[in-house]
Amino acid sequence: MSKARFFLMCLSLLLVAGLALPAFAQDNVAITSTFGGGPDTFSQIYCTGTDCADMVGYMYMGLLGVDVETATIQPNQLGALAESWTVSDDNLVYDIKLREGFTWSDGTPITSADIAYHWEILNNPEAAHPQAWLLDTLSSLEVIDDYNIRITVSSPACSALSYIGGVSPLPSHILSQSAPAELATLEFNLAPTVTSGYFTFGQHRPAEITSLLANKEHPDAGEFNLEGIIQLVSSDQAVQIEQFLEGETNFLESLPPDRKQEFRENADLQVYEYPGNTWDYLGFNTADPTNPQPALAEDGTRIEQGIHPIFGDKRVRQALAHAVDVDAIIAGAVFGEADRMPAHIVPASWAFNSDLAPRGYDTELALSMLAEAGWVQNDEGKLVCQGCLYATEVDPAFEGSAMEFELLTNAGNTRREAIGAIIQDQLGQIGATVDFQAIEFNTLLEVMDSQEFDTFILGWRAGYPDDPNTLQLFGAGADIPGSGFNFTSFYNEEYFELEAQANEMQGCDPADRAPIYQRMQEIMQDEMPYLWLYAQNGMYVAQGNVAGFDPRPNALDWNITSWTISNE
Predict the structure, then answer these.
(1) What is the mean pLDDT of residues 234-256?
(2) Which pTM value belongs to this model?
């Protein structure tokens, strides 16, 4: 069975029987877990975290599918709707034929209208769609008939299929009954009554458990052994790991690095390792956090966003990168299970710039650069503004202010909590006062979306299949308070021009595109909207009782329906 889901994020098993869940036989129920707050939505539109993304992927079909053997987007993949497509000679028009015979779980046919409805919502500002940045590339969608659509892109794009895959079919006959502004808060989002995938919704208890039921009548079901999937919510990652080792869950895809060697040495477990595409970073807010503004007006002109009193000056961001010992973080927080990132592209990517060295740890250089930026140590060794950019250009009263800022991460993630503690200590040694706080994950996402933060530590999982395009993360169209992922308000005209050049190259040969992406990494290292940390080595693990466990890089559960599990 091909990988169809498209990626563009303390209970014990003994307690499950006490919950009012659909009845599961003990065998052939796949039990996994997440930690922290757990999913807060199962909306195809508004799910942006990994805790909800997996469950959404199990419940809904995508438009396009990925062949796991080639890790490329291909037509006619099981679990995806696109049967075939043709592309015009100018590479602007994609005519897509949909596979017929698929229905929503209530029996309503899945047709072009469900994709057209998603397009309508994507274009409606009242819906606050988090992927509205897709409209920078996708210019129109036309329904030809019930099973044929035409999507036009604004310019030839090597990443066009990735963007097109973002317009997945939505149950329009259900969602269209609500106003666009109401879609984010529908009861349907936490208890979807209509789905389209291999599994249907069972039950959800916030911060506790989610259950899904097998949809064995799905036309693509094929060999379908599982009866359902349960996702437990663990209080933190340490509890999650202990639950797995005690046999309370069957598989995991995110492992703390300090436990990886333990898993390698456990003969009772199935372990799969691969070059990682998950990476951690510290994000700087470069714009005015007291008055968040989008990067662009409706007519595409740039909006004045102000500057952050500390991080609006890239010299400060560069200096702090030299003041943080990332090698020490890799050793102390991820136990050597990672590779440094000099910029925004993971070392496993074909576009990685292997000639670009990461910024080295050098506190003397950091202090010298800070002094040039108007931040000097006082008699007590504290960094204070003496002619810093903010005081000279925005608020002269800021002169003499100490370098004090808040650093946030998600509570329960022991790795990121360790990173925050190390950075707090290291920056404290040069005179910066860092208020480090670990807060609930969904609360953190709300703070990030608001763009009212100073700094935060989080991570990304690079796209699957590998696509170095970064419009989603750093494009000007993705810089919208309340939605979009350019939280840091990165803006660089040369970078944007190079991104367009690489993405519009005729033939899309990676060998020709790679030098452009390598230059873009140089720009990113200079601009430093993030303090680039590392890409983790990838590892998936399953209990020995999971027959059929056969992962591919970045595709743990591509054949999950054919697994057989004995949970006795």
Answers:
(1) 92
(2) 0.72
